[in-house]
Amino acid sequence: MTTLASTVVRAKDTTAPQRVRRRLSGRVASVVAIVIAVLWTTPTFGLLLSSLRPEDQIKTTGWWTFFADPQLTLENYREVLFGTSSSSGQMMSFLINSVVITIPSVLFPLALATFAAYALAWLPFRGREWIYIGIFALQIVPLQMSLVPLLSFFSQGVEIFGLQLSPAWNLEGPARFIQVWFAHTCFALPLGIFLLHNFMSELPGELMEAARVDGASHGVILRKLVLPLVLPALATFAIFQFLWVWNDLLVGLIFAGGTPDSAPMTVRLAQMAGTRGNEWQRLTAGAFVSVIIPLVVFLSMQRYFVRGLLAGSVKG
Amino acid sequence: MDFDFAAEQSKLVQLLIGIAAFLVVVAVILLLVDRAPMRRRAWVHATILLLPATLLLGVGLVVPAIRTTLLSFMSGDSRQWVGLDNYGWMFTQPEAVTVLRNTLVWVLLVPLLVTSVGLVYAVLVDRTRFEAVAKSLVFLPMAISFVGAGIIWRFVYAYRSVEQEQIGLLNQIVVAMGGEPQQWLQEPPLNTLFLIVVMVWIQAGFATVVLSAAIKGIPAEIIEAAKLDGASPLQMFFQVTLPSIRGAVIVVLVTQSIGTLKLFDIVRTMTGGQFDTSVIANEMYNQAFRYGETGKGAALAVFLFVLVLPIVVYQIRQRREVR
């Protein structure tokens, strides 16, 4: 009886869905899909092509004329990256700043969030629910709310009723990176702890119990047992944080200042867009330089990233 | 024209110092945890592990958020209490009201457009031969910074007067169809819509990926049953697909709303908030960091918090229900 029913279903299977699929992937549907794909790809392609064209051509003709009169040059990149006058991009300095900002801003919160998440997931102590809820709730606080006070914490220190509790940091030059790392680390912790905690609390409890009976300390359990198991979650969070820090403008603008000493590339690009909005040869090449690194990271790590997205974790 | 690498060395030294210092911190924490006897109560270990994170959260988020709330009731130079003056300014002065109105337009349109485009695209490319490639193409802008995207789109919107050849794609199309080139970013209220397009362009891939995964999660039997009943593609979409992925649609709508409220970079790169395009986050930056009006900036930040709060509470409750 059941075999008969399933044969019937299977027989229909080959006809009805095929018909539906043929209709679904009919002309209109394909055309709409292609139009969307083209719309989404064209702007970036236009930028890439423009950045490779000679300056006078970028400024006088559209990038699509390239196909009638193909001319390519790397001059824009050379100038925007390695030029040292303040009117050129000086992008190389800012690129180095971005790297120097990003590496610690990913590592620091990753490590601290791992410690905190382990404690919240596997150490039975009083009030742990409350601390977890508190940290979770901090995700709500928009970064904008903490900018002014955090900046004055660095520049003026903490003073209550005339009592100086902490000194002004007065960071200059490369030391300013410290306050950018600090800010990024603070802002990343709520999401990081939340993500890693969710992942860690799913681990089998017997495993920890067995290790503890064998006399392993929490440090050993964390390093030898938990860390290898939560690697996928760590990777997801690291990619999130990398993209967030690399692409950030607001934190960089406020905590790194606007000079080649410490400002990231996004700050420089925003400056160029504002003051020399018509220097297209520099803008296009500069923008592409800033885009290419996250694109490469993103493409090579896409699988983890998508998995992270699907875990329902998103930084707003 | 010569880039001097030696001049950059101090930065790399700073980087090494920073990482070394941090490794010392990590080592100390691990050492303390290892040394603390396991017989002791859990809270000793917990304190060691939680201290750095909670300390940073306190200094970086909790105390600042409280101080910002206080600052919002003070004058621009933070010397006098002014009660609700800053909030009064926000809701009555024309320039501030424009900002609120723009933010409203953003937060109504972006989530709706992002979700619709993402949904339509996810359905159209589902189970086609090119699915993986097609999804990556739309997903790519996710990796691009808002600043980079802003520049990409400024180039699309670029304007040249009628006599000159156009270099912006959009105006080229307009001219090719016999129209006059437009200054897309300078004419309110339409310019806000042109900025919104950029945000939708960046975020649609996110929606596509999330919704596409949800569509693949619909049980095969439901689809089979509907097909056997002879449902048309449109009926399938509205009566089977959409109800089945309701949860994912809500997640996308919520995250997009929150992201849009905090949006800052696109407006700043493309118009700087001029020509009536400013939004709350951008105006907050202007007031607090450019005009020295800390009170007004703080009030805008607090208002942002108040707007985000109900969305997040809703999301938390939604998640609980799913569990």
From TrEMBL, chain A:
<keyword id="KW-0472">Membrane</keyword>
<feature type="transmembrane region" description="Helical">
    <location>
        <begin position="28"/>
        <end position="49"/>
    </location>
</feature>
<keyword id="KW-1133">Transmembrane helix</keyword>
<keyword id="KW-0813">Transport</keyword>
<feature type="transmembrane region" description="Helical">
    <location>
        <begin position="280"/>
        <end position="299"/>
    </location>
</feature>
<feature type="transmembrane region" description="Helical">
    <location>
        <begin position="225"/>
        <end position="246"/>
    </location>
</feature>
<feature type="transmembrane region" description="Helical">
    <location>
        <begin position="94"/>
        <end position="123"/>
    </location>
</feature>
<feature type="transmembrane region" description="Helical">
    <location>
        <begin position="175"/>
        <end position="196"/>
    </location>
</feature>
<feature type="domain" description="ABC transmembrane type-1">
    <location>
        <begin position="95"/>
        <end position="301"/>
    </location>
</feature>
<protein>
    <submittedName>
        <fullName>Alpha-glucoside transport system permease protein</fullName>
    </submittedName>
</protein>
<feature type="transmembrane region" description="Helical">
    <location>
        <begin position="130"/>
        <end position="155"/>
    </location>
</feature>
<keyword id="KW-0812">Transmembrane</keyword>
<keyword id="KW-1003">Cell membrane</keyword>
<dbReference type="InterPro" id="IPR035906">
    <property type="entry name" value="MetI-like_sf"/>
</dbReference>
<dbReference type="InterPro" id="IPR000515">
    <property type="entry name" value="MetI-like"/>
</dbReference>
<dbReference type="Pfam" id="PF00528">
    <property type="entry name" value="BPD_transp_1"/>
</dbReference>
<comment type="similarity">
    <text>Belongs to the binding-protein-dependent transport system permease family.</text>
</comment>
